Amino acid sequence: MIELTTPINEEDVSRLQVGDTVEISGYILCGRDAVLPKVLKMIEEGTVGSLGIDLHGQVIFHTAVSPAGVGPTSSNKVEIESSIKPLSKAGIKLHLGKGELHKETITALDEYNAVYAVIPPVTALLASKTTDEKVIAFPELGMEALHLIKADRYPAIIGAAHGRSIYEK
């Protein structure tokens, strides 16, 4: 088991390989199809710094945050998968979700030394490993707003790294 703590540095990402099991601790962003296009717009406009967080070395979990907890949504939804390249370019090092990504997305991850990890849909387990949460942008989206949570050893498997995918046939 490889322990990762946010922010994740370039060297840690460089060492990760497809199939590695990891535990992620520290503050991570949570966003899915409703909010990610808004975050991309902020990056394009140069206003993402107003969120009060640095995207460099950050993790983004493709999830909503509800009273029931957090659980992964499909990362290959158009609004989510299309955000992976620009978010990686902006400094995100680990994208956390579920499902197979397109080859172009895997190539983009490699281009920006970022990785994708799959996390099992275990909302009850993750609730016990989430120690803090707050909305940092777009509160009008409710549980799909951009959240910042504090994770304590979230389990995941590296699903795409360095141009390879766990889903390769």
TrEMBL record:
<dbReference type="GO" id="GO:0016836">
    <property type="term" value="F:hydro-lyase activity"/>
</dbReference>
<dbReference type="InterPro" id="IPR036660">
    <property type="entry name" value="Fe-S_hydroAse_TtdB_cat_sf"/>
</dbReference>
<protein>
    <submittedName>
        <fullName>Fumarate hydratase C-terminal domain-containing protein</fullName>
    </submittedName>
</protein>
<dbReference type="InterPro" id="IPR004647">
    <property type="entry name" value="Fe-S_hydro-lyase_TtdB-typ_cat"/>
</dbReference>
<keyword id="KW-0456">Lyase</keyword>
<dbReference type="Pfam" id="PF05683">
    <property type="entry name" value="Fumerase_C"/>
</dbReference>
<feature type="domain" description="Fe-S hydro-lyase tartrate dehydratase beta-type catalytic">
    <location>
        <begin position="2"/>
        <end position="168"/>
    </location>
</feature>
<comment type="similarity">
    <text>Belongs to the class-I fumarase family.</text>
</comment>
